[in-house]
Design goal:
The protein is α+β, with helices and mostly antiparallel strands. It has 26 helices and 21 strands. Strands 1, 2, 3, 4, 5, 6, 7, 8, 9, 10 and 11 form an eleven-stranded antiparallel beta sheet that branches. Strands 12, 13, 14, 17, 18, 19, 20 and 21 form an eight-stranded mixed beta sheet that branches.
Length: 696
Amino acid sequence: MSNSASLRSLAALLAAGLLIASVPSRADEGMWTFDNPPIKQLQQKYRFTPTQEWLDHVRLSCVRFNDGGSGSFVSPHGLVLTNHHVARGQLQKNSTAEHDYIKDGFYAATPEQEIKSPDLEVDMLVSMENVTERVRAAVKNAKTDQEEFTARKAVLADIERESTQKTGLRSDIVTLYQGGEYWLYRYKKYTDVRIVFAPEDQIAFFGGDPDNFTYPRYDVDFALFRIYENGKPIENKDYLKWNSKGASENELVFVAGHPGSTQRLDTVAQLEFERDYFEPNLLKLIRHRLDAAKAYAALGEEQARQTSTRIFGLENSLKAFEGRHTGLLDKNVMAKKKTDEEEFKSKVISNPEWKQAYGGGWDAIAKAMKKASTRVKQSLFESTDSQLASIAARIVDYVVEIKKPDAERLEGYHDAQLDSLRFDLFSPAPIYPGFEIARMTASLEQALQELGPDDPFVKIALNGRSPKEVATEIISGTKIADPEVRKKLVEGGEAAVAASTDPMIVLQRKLDPNRRATIKWEEETVDSVLQQAGEKLGKARFAAYGKNAYPDATFTLRLSYGQVKGYPMNGTKAPYKTTLYGLYDRAQSFDFKGPFALPSRCVAGRDKLDLSTPVDFVSTNDITGGNSGSPVINRNAEIVGLIFDGNIESLVGDFVYSDETNRAVSVHTGVMTETLRKLYNAQGLADELGGTSSSR
């Protein structure tokens, strides 16, 4: 993904939540693709060789949650394990003032009680195909960066469309090594996904934001869904068998999941752009939105319920990006990046053929990033931060884009993407007008402050009025919250949207030319350059090092390996595991107050539990955001834990990895089994996980 595209996608996630030398990885480093697993490293360090059968079984047992996160099948009856915080969005959307499933938890004792998620898509990777040569053939005659960008966009859309039509599977092009390779990933897509179990938030996220990204931890952060097709639970032969003994110290373990994004292959120029321009402004945006959400939550209990997931996401993002930015400000980190880049560059420049073909890549990227720096604020702050505004904008775009040839459409509107787009667009999930007004008001206030009254977006959005007036009038007047209204507009096409007097549609029609002009500028000035230059350096990397390294994370399935072990911390040593003894001690130490309070069932049920049961553990596995919910498995592909976080030292891991202090933090299978049986009386569910029951 290009840096300017990253600006848009990161801002969008928050509104809801590329190149140095690619050298052979060291220690337990790496998020490896399943076509190129770290066979040699595993053989040398751990005397273990995964077979193709092992790899295929693990791949087909893993799933991706398209609203962010990972998971895995843990029974032959469609049961999927993930984190509570990955399930949180769907729990929120199913909650009401009377039934708060985040606060109180949820357990479906029978299949009839399982709750359908309103807009969750879960994908399983069925196959991978290298399409690099077809992509390169399509762009080889391009004479300019823009011509190459257009040709590449067209062939990628063609490949996805042809595959979707031929197979019926979701078909996504995945760019690896900054364009060194292009792969077609085909997914089996599931949209009937039902909530089976989730503990109370107070035990799933025990310690709250103060403990987030730290260790030792005591979070029982897990949840269970079940996947249905044609009204019945699916029967899946590939699933991860449950090992209730869980991970043990120094054990070799694997993480199979979908890490979201890393920037370890970025050039120094790209990292300097991130450090000096993008992340300082992004942090400013997050803090402003968090303040607005907390102010709304303070209005009452129901407002607090409506905002809880939003606040959780913003606080998580704030801490994560503060850690990333601190890492980029670390002179040692940047010095290492510069040294690695110079080593790579010297290899290229010293070879006349490579220099001719690839040597201009670094300068081209540096120039593009200099141009991108002039529009960072527009990329971030030209936003209404409203769910309803986002829906209306997509409707306005949809009716225009689908009339174009597939290759000419905006990203997200290609034929292969339309089913998923419509599924999300017509979601029946509740939207809260009061919170929408608060969000939109705060966002427009920040846009006015950061961009000034003469900015084109600000002038169109405010039209001389105050942010509060605009937000209140538009949110109060729009009917876009009703999915049936959305469907009628989409079905009515461009004419229906053009004739609509809905105030949110009217606003988005007015903003659409400005939005398209921004996208056009980014594509022509930044994206096209980064794609061409990135592909050059990707080819150079293969020429210099071969395929002995892993690519940056792309929210696609990866495999990492590592050991369960503690690490030096604050002048002492962090243990490899924590236990229920520690959970109750930490709660008691804070007098069971605030984020260190425990749900009543945990307090009342203490004597039922074996307090020596492991709760969380750490390992050297290389992970990042998106890995949440990934299974931790042993050599036998048995599940022994569940990734839910990284320690504070790992936040710089988006750029560099160190096995001395980087740690992945996981929930132990022992505590999941213990609490299901003894606190929640979910014997049938625990039996299904353990393989002792064929159904509930």
